[in-house]
Amino acid sequence: MATKTFGISPRGAVHRWTQTLIPTTREAPADAESPSHVFLSRAGFIRKLGAGIYDFLPLGYRVLKKVSQIVREEMDGAGAMELHLPVMLPIELYNETKRHVAYGDLLFKVTDRKGAVCALGPTHEEPITEMVKGSINSYKQLPINLYQIQTKFRDEARPRSGLLRGREFLMKDAYSFHTAVEGPGGLNETYDKMHAAYTNVFRRCGLDFTVVEAESGPIGGSASHEFMVNAASGEDTILKCPASGYAANVEKCEIGPRPAPAKGYFAGEPSGALEEVHTPGCPGIEDVVKFLKVKPQHMLKSVLFKVQSTPEDLAKYGEEFILAVVRGDHDVNEGKVRDAAGVSGVELADVKEAAAKGFAVGFISPRAALGKKGVLVVVDRDAAIGFDDAAGKPKFWVTGGDKIDYHVKHFNWQRDLGKDPLAAAAHKPETHGTGGLRGGDDYLMVADVRNALAGDPSPRSAGAKLETGRGIEVGHIFKLGTKYSDAMGLSVLGADQQKKSVIMGCYGIGVSRTVAAAVEQNHDENGIVWPVAIAPYHVLITLMRADSADHAALADKIAGELAARGVDVLIDDRDERPGPKFKDADLIGVPIRLTIGEKALAAGAVEFKTRRATDKGSLVPTGEIVEWCVQKIGDAMG
Ligand code: ATP
Ligand code: MG
Asked: What pLDDT is recorded for position 217?
């Protein structure tokens, strides 16, 4: 009979508390705020060595290995081959992709004795592209999917929450190589396989997660998905449509059709005469709102972006800017601004650059774009309102005064930007002497350029409203296209003897982050409640009397039989009072607890309890306990 493997190897481990290292503590480290940081530290799984740098102690390492093993099995199952690339990457590797520049301070660098610089890999697109380039030359050698489980380095600006955002962390990264996007052997086929494998990984880890559409970059469409562990403490905002199942990262989430104003965009009389007000020391919306005693939904927030131009476009059109305008209580969405403008990338304009162009950052109004060449104004639908339909009166707007420390009240689109700022495209450059982007005519447009919010119309199901949740990004799959192969010259000869750029996909899992995310999702006030599949041990046997040879012998016997069935067992053989032992048991979160004590033994039984259960536990005859545990573990792991 084949034994089911529950853990790392077919035979389970039997370890003793007194022989391993589990330095539990009552106090959390001073900088620990998130539950995973607090409990993993207090339970002796990890220990901080420096900012964003952690030791994995024996318990922590067991969990890390279990997650890694699940990842490895699923990658192998999806047809990916494991390899191992160096951490130290000669900086010249980035000559073509220029990512050492794009990464900026995130990239760790070391200098050797001869002065040569190496980057410590933050991810491995460049070295793998280089390796594959040197290893294949024909379409016949593709497709191929390669992965590694490897330490990564990123000098995060704010390393935090323990393993959730470290500077040294464990990642599984995979890269696939193809000659086509569609069809057998194409990128889409592998992408779908990896999508399924990722789903298996996080399901097998026992986690509750959401797969969301994410910013897709060069290929467009649904070319990128993130796997988010649902947790209130998550950094990322997820939006879901309950009717269609659509889910997206806030960076990507579309908003369904919003009702247009009855009179049309921008149309409506002013709410009053334009009034300039001195607002000293109020650079942010929150400050102005307090100072002027107005509601944020009556503010217009104008954010200036610079277009990331190619050298050719720069020569042709000069520097170009986009002024994105949203309501004060909304957030500008950079990706939507980029897409609305039809450019390949935007970045926040810096204050100096903006000033040189005549924009007072923090106090910009849409009027600031008047008379300027190469500026496109993109106004969100909720901000492009002249008449307030709900209130039945002209819309009252407060916006920047276009000079430091000033705002204006009663801004009106038509009066202050021209009679008919829309008929969008009808607004010719002559009208205000502005030309929009790329020398085009439009300088003002209405679009969806804000982050979606709970209650917004679903983009996939009429009448449904978006709901929000928080998540922790544990995986990310991405159709790269030919970005790296073009930059680094990775091509193969096709069947027609023509050179073809290789098409790539990349697939990451934050292995160490997954450990922490599991705790964020599975804990109570007393400690960790591990999902069975990734618990450091499946079973904890607590000896009420460590000095009893009989008790110890029984514990050994049960543990040995469990191990033979693939179950990992920790025996708490410490000569301690039961109170602290049970406290520690709660803290380290082993799913099944067996207690060997006089009372139960007198009845020929041991006490069985699960970490999740709130009841007292039950007595199970000693002869049945092994089968009982194996059954429970099997059930829990599906
Ligand atoms: P984030 O947006 O959280 O900074 P990212 O999108 O930059 O992450 P990727 O480049 O997609 O991360 O890396 C793949 C995976 O590696 C992520 O999905 C995440 O699980 C993990 N990861 C990224 N940065 C860290 C970090 N600093 N600490 C731990 N895990 C990380
Ligand atoms: Mg990512």
From this structure: 57
450 DSSP assignment: B
* C-beta of 166 in contact with ligand 1 (< 6 A): yes
CATH of 14-24+537-637, picked from 3.40.50.800, 2.20.28.10, 3.40.1160.10, 3.40.190.10, is: 3.40.50.800
The pLDDT of residue 630 is above 90: yes
CB distance 162 to ligand 1 below 6 Å:
no
Q: Candidates 3.30.470.20, 3.40.640.10, 3.40.50.300, 3.90.960.10; correct CATH number of 275-447?
A: 3.90.960.10
| pLDDT the model gives residue 427 | 39
CB 21 within 8 A of CB 504: no
φ/ψ of 486, rounded to 5, equals -65, -45
Atom of ligand 1 nearest to the CA of 173: 14
Beta carbons within 8 Å of 241's beta carbon, 6+ residues apart? 247, 458, 459, 460, 461, 464, 466, 467
Task: Tell whether ligand 1 has an atom less than 6 A from the beta carbon of residue 269.
Answer: no
Do 275-447 and 14-24+537-637 have the same topology in CATH? no
Ligand nearest to the CA of 509: 1
Distance in Å, CA 98 to ligand 1 centroid = 20
Question: Which protein residue has the closest C-alpha to ligand 1 atom 26?
Answer: 165
Measured in Å, residue 611 CA sits from the centre of ligand 2 at 33
Which fold is adopted by the domain 46-255+468-519?
Answer: BirA Bifunctional Protein; domain 2 (3.30.930)
Among residues 86, 119, 84, 85, the alpha carbon closest in space to that of 102 is found at 119
Give pLDDT tens digits for 551-581: 999 999 999 999 999 999 999 999 999 999 9
List, as ranges, residues with CB under 5 A of the ion ligand 2: 476
**Maximum average pLDDT range among 348-362, 437-451, 561-575:** 561-575
| Region 516-540 average pLDDT | 97
pTM listed for this prediction: 0.90
For the chain, the structural domain boundaries read 14-24+537-637, 46-255+468-519, 275-447
Band (343; pLDDT cuts 50, 70, 90): confident
279 to each of 294, 304, 351, 398, how far by Cα in Å? 13, 21, 19, 12
How buried is residue 618: exposed, middle or buried, by Cβ count under 10 Å (0-12/13-18/19+)?
Answer: exposed
- For ligand 1, atom 28: residue with the closest CA: 165
Task: Compute the distance from residue 475 Cα to the ligand 1 centre, in Å.
Answer: 8
